[in-house]
Amino acid sequence: MTQFVLYEYWRSSASYRVRIALNLKQLPYLSMPIHLLKDGGEQHHAMYAELNANELVPTLVDNDFDGEKLVLNQSLTIIDYLDEHFPHPRLTPVSGRERYLVTALAQDIAIDLHPINNLRVIQKLSRDFDFDETSKAKWMQHWIELGFHALEKKLSDVHGKYCVGDSISLVDVCLVPQVYNAERFGVDLSPFPTIASICSTLREHPAFVAAEPERQPDAS
Amino acid sequence: MTQFVLYEYWRSSASYRVRIALNLKQLPYLSMPIHLLKDGGEQHHAMYAELNANELVPTLVDNDFDGEKLVLNQSLTIIDYLDEHFPHPRLTPVSGRERYLVTALAQDIAIDLHPINNLRVIQKLSRDFDFDETSKAKWMQHWIELGFHALEKKLSDVHGKYCVGDSISLVDVCLVPQVYNAERFGVDLSPFPTIASICSTLREHPAFVAAEPERQPDAS
């Protein structure tokens, strides 16, 4: 039996984060695509809702957690789990000033930026306000630009080759999927040279390359 | 000098979480109110933006982190920091199955439920779509009810006196501020008996009582 099964969607940022983390740690996994749009959204079907009543992807199943099955929801929890049990490389420092710097910057992206732009928010805005493609893009751009302005400032003090110094961290794992979304919705990245440059470097790393949405088997 | 200075706003859920955690750990702190509405929002003023370029509350300053100053953004990072350095009581289990259960449930609230209802999202909806008080309440209710339906299901398998078993955890710390928001925006809690009952118990605890928004010096 495969140890790791990842329930995910190719374009989901949170799924993309977990793919990067699994690849960085060189952990093979079986991908179980959950199509967020087909048939009213497969994340709402009973099979998946049993794994996550929140009906959001990703979910990682570890079939060998001390010989038992462990179901993990929430991308940041999944990556925390992987970090504790497969610490090479460690993505969140174990302790010290750097730990809190890394988790806070990752949360700036994963909590304050991304959820407002999630598919279900866009779907609700479309239903309630007849959002067309232009309105959608404007909504996305507004929040991404606001978040990136702050992030660009914060990174200027702490970045090296990567977001925090010269080791790949959880911040980088969250950044690349967010830049992918930014480009998808036409955000001009020129005001964010640090973000753009770190992201270019990261995108050459094989773990990031293999995690790219368009390379996933369910990409369409 | 006071060791802990908390930059916060009485009605901010994320600030409320940190107050509860500080109180549970019996750590005294100096409150520095940042008024999110006055003068265009004090969180945007230079004094605060230097502490958090993201211009969101809370920020905790520890003036004695091994003799140095440590500035911490993001409520979940702040609580993680407090847990590592002041572990009595521990709010997130150090390891094991329970750790990931607690962090994932807390993130269900802090990532997937709360940010969509944040003040700045409501302010943008008001500007863009002429949101009146009824539309605001409907928007809040929609996301809170969706999140609470899932949470109620998830808690049914794991709760005891509190959200996860019989010890207060990070989930409880996130739950009470979210229920406060639910009540503020007229969410009917009767479909969520587990949430309502745990919350009633928690609200009798002195650490939760002292953290209540209306008891804060900046409440108005």
Overview of this protein structure:
The structure is a homodimer of 220-residue chains. With 220 residues, chain A is of the alpha+beta class. Chain A folds into 2 domains: 4-90, Glutaredoxin; 97-207, Glutathione S-transferase Yfyf (Class Pi), Chain A, domain 2 (Up-down Bundle). The first copy, chain A, is built from 9 helices and 4 strands. Chain A has helices spanning 13-24, 46-49, 75-85, 97-113, 119-129, 133-158, 170-184, 193-202, 206-210, and strands at residues 4-8, 30-33, 59-65, 68-73. A 4-stranded mixed sheet of chain A has the order 2-1-3-4, with helices on one face. The longest helix of chain A is centred in the middle third of the chain and has 26 residues, at 133-158. The two termini of chain A are 28 Å apart.
**Mean pLDDT, all residues of chain A:** 96
Kindly state the percentage of residues in helix of chain A. Answer: 40-55%
Total of DSSP H or I helical runs spanning 4+ residues of chain A: 9
Strand order, biggest sheet of chain A? 2-1-3-4
User: Spans of chain A with pLDDT under 50 lasting ≥5 residues?
Assistant: none
- Annotated CATH architecture of the largest domain in chain A: Up-down Bundle
β-strand number of chain A: 4
CATH topology of the largest domain in chain A: Glutathione S-transferase Yfyf (Class Pi), Chain A, domain 2
Oligomerization category of the chains in this entry: homodimer
Distance between the termini of chain A: 28 Å
What's the story with the biggest beta sheet of chain A?
4 strands, mixed
Count of discrete structural domains of chain A: 2
The percentage of residues in β strands of chain A lies in 5-15%
Of all protein chain pairs, which has the greatest interface, and how many residues does each chain bring to it?
A-B, 38 and 38 residues
Cα Rg of chain A: 17 Å
What is the CATH class name of the largest domain in chain A? Mainly Alpha
SS-derived structural category of chain A: alpha+beta
Overall 3D geometry of chain A?
Answer: globular
Organism (chains A, B): Vibrio thalassae
EC number (chains A, B): 5.2.1.4
Keywords (chains A, B): Isomerase, Pyruvate
Family (chains A, B): Belongs to the GST superfamily. Zeta family.
